[in-house]
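STRUCTURE REQUEST FORM
Protein name: Heparin-sulfate lyase N-terminal domain-containing protein
Source organism: Planomonospora alba
Requested output: structure tokens
Priority: standard
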Amino acid sequence: MFNHVSAASGPAAHRPAAPARLRRAGAALLRRAATRALGERRAVPPLPSGEGPAVCVPGGFPAVEVSEVLRGRVAFSGLPPVELGTGAIDWHLDPHRSRSWALNLHALRWMGSLVVEYERSGNREFLDRAAAIAEDWVRNNPEGGTGVSPWAWAEHPVALRGPALVCLSAHVRAAWLLRSLAEHGRVLADPARYRQGHNHGLDQDIALLTIGRRLGHRPWQELAVRRMTASALIAIDGQGALHEQAPRYGLYVHRRLGAALETIAACGLDVPAGLAARRASLESYIAHATQPDGRLVPIGDGPAGVRPAGIPAQRETVKVFDAGYVFARTAWDDPSSAYYSIRFGPGRRLHGHEDHLGLTYHAQGRAVLVEAGFHSYERTPYQRWTASPEAHNVPVVPGATFREGTATRLVSASVGPERQCFRLADDAYGVRRTRSVLVCHGADLMAVLDEVPAGSVLRSLWHFDPSLTAVSVRAGRVVLADGERRVTLVQLHPASGLPLDGQEVEVQEIATGHLRTARSATVLSPPARSVLTLVVPGTGDPGITCSGGRVTVRTPGGPVSFPLSLDRSGP
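Status: completed
Returned output:
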């Protein structure tokens, strides 16, 4: 909060009373001195003192066990409950050593849920407890105070806490609360703390808008709308892809922009047409990133199992996003549809992983190839591994140094209704790494050719869905099974079409959701300059013949023929 110097403190408190004019002048000097003392660290604008309606952001608070919160127990981020007590709270608590837990503690959205329950039930106990929690937080976490938890004024907790305090202020009229709202507004308006083009920045804008409306401060409201409009143009490209490199965040931003548009209207401001259009464009990205099982493909920092709701199906079954994605399926609204994704594009940023050239694959209504996914935001060796190339279905170059943040080019694309072929390339290991991908639908088959220049070798990695277990490894073939279901991986020498023997099968832990893991069979190809990998769902014994530079694979859906070089997609 704003620090001021009281005229009744310090040595001046023992001097004779001065005339009113001199007292006012002295007070003004003291205020200017206090401002100058803080000015080295930040500029302090006047805090607004007006009053307007409390606009509560729709869908802003998580579902919590409000009866448990009344008893002093909270549970965040899928972790076990923690006893906070019903009196003063220790705001330095971090019992799970979890960044997500500490953020949620200071975001106070759980307090906002008590306000929502009070509005629903009329039970004053919920409101009183919410006010006590908020006042305890404000008293013990002054902005810039010594010993305050670093999470207290981190940019995202501030953004999430602001709307909760606004909703509380609709029912609690207290000077401490209005002062805290003003301080939150000042922090949120500070350009040095703003995350432009980031989902945190959007939450900052929503908070600033609601605080500006509550305090009757029009400049904050207008600033919030200008910033979120400019940020949307940065974060969401013309095709609707979010630059944070994780479809899960595309869904999050879509939802938060929906809340933002409602809030802008509720504040009596005009909704910018460009902002509404960018939000609508996200629906294509989210829809194409949704697998036939209704879950978002867990690319980047996106846990498996997230189900988008209310996102309409699109017209195209194959979509290439310039931001670095290929998403394709055989049909919409059909759980048995085949589906795959491929990654390329700009180097890793924000919530992306080092997953370029990586792919996922669904066929015959089941997941076949998966990636390590997203486990948590905790800075652990396992979390770092889930973002590494080795956690994805990619070719790696043993002995070479991986260059983080390297971009990958989509060299060519050939798209037909039943066959698609893509060629990608980069130099992430200091040598040209090329991957060609051919996918056949109907007669389900994925063929992938990986190559590096002479003098280098690669090993391709293939992470299979945890439901599949390797039951046979021989003569360049790995057969995986789930009950009666079979999937076969075959690897060939591209030059001759002969089997490439020497596969290794490891069992690795992949993330199947937030803080959840499962054991997955991972196949590593033998070291070679080039490897042709065939993934054939639905059979443990696909017939394969090679002649005249072509390979024919007999799949359960019929024979498929193509060049060993995958250089064209025709039959």
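Reviewer notes: The longest strand covers residues 504-513. The radius of gyration is 29 Å.
Form closed.
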